[in-house]
Amino acid sequence: MLTQTDKANDLAERFGGELGGEFAPASIPISRIAEDYGTPFYLYHGEMISERVRRVHESLGTEVSYSLKANPSLGVCQLIASEREAGAEVASSGELAVARAAGFEPEDIV
Fold first, then answer.
1. CB distance 57 to 64 below 8 Å
2. 53 and 102 within one domain
3. How far from 35 is each of 29, 52, 57, 70, CA to CA, in Å?
4. Do 63 and 23 belong to one domain?
5. Phi-psi region for residue 27, left (φ > 0), alpha (ψ -120 to 50) or beta?
6. Are 83 and 59 in contact (CB under 8 A)?
7. Containing domain of residue 100, as a range?
8. Span 5-62, pLDDT tens digits
9. What element of type H or E holds 1?
């Protein structure tokens, strides 16, 4: 079973390591991110999201749709829409508005 330290070390390794003993995703100290954006905050790794979407699309060899129910964050949706590897699956008018604002083409929204 992984300890909290093991989990923290794994996270730091996967998201960019550390700088001066501090977790630093994309070489930006986490304390600076907290100062700039406040806390709490969500931190996403765009390259990792893009890679996962690409892998799912390639593995299935068919059209895939990202469910906005999972995470309707406009930034995440914009990233996925820009990659053109997945469409959007929506279940409400609010999710539809986010999908359109993110740049999903109408024909790619179900």
1. yes
2. yes
3. 10, 30, 37, 28
4. no
5. left
6. no
7. 46-108
8. 777 777 777 777 777 778 888 788 889 999 999 999 888 888 888 998 999 989 998 8
9. none
* Model confidence, pTM: 0.75
Q: What is the pLDDT of residues 60-95, one digit of tens each?
A: 988 899 999 999 999 999 999 998 889 999 999 999
Is the peptide bond preceding residue 106 cis, with omega within 30 degrees of 0?
Answer: no
Q: Which of 57, 59, 53, 95 is nearest to 109 (CA)?
A: 95
- How many residues in total does the chain contain? 110
Residues 28 and 67 in one domain: no
Query: How many structural domains is the chain composed of?
Result: 2
Q: Report residue 46 as tokens.
A: 């765009």
pLDDT of amino acid 104: 97
Identify whether residues 89 and 50 lie together within a single domain. Answer: yes
Q: Tell me: do 76 and 52 sit in the same domain.
A: yes
Beta strands per DSSP E along the chain: 18-19, 22-23, 65-67, 87-89
